[in-house]
Amino acid sequence: MNTIKNILAVSALAMGIAMPVSSFAQATMDQGKMNMSQASDSMTDGEVKKIDADNGKITLKHGDIKNLDMPGMTMVFTVRDKGQLAKLKPGDKVQFVVVQEGGKMVVTDIQSMR
Ligand SMILES: [Cu+2]
């Protein structure tokens, strides 16, 4: 009898400890997922500096890229869809979406603000 009581007490205790931990882990994970999906959709402001349509590259002076934790700077991006470069020219104000893919920054969407 005592053994069963002890087991019950121990498992109740273990559950009391385990529950908050797992619900905390769950909440953290959900938040992580939420942040990621929000981040991948977030547009970054920028200004076109240079376009290399043949190689699908664009030089952008960009604002803070929240999803990549990158402060504003001027840098070269690879554009996934080269066709999107056709309607842009240096000096254009743009909004773009950039993701990190295999260590490379890839612009998945870019739109002129005109
Ligand atoms: Cu940058």
TrEMBL record:
InterPro entries: CusF_Ec, CusF_sf. Keywords: Signal. Coiled coil: none annotated. Residues 1-25 form the signal peptide. This is Cu and Ag efflux protein CusF. It comes from Oryzisolibacter propanilivorax.
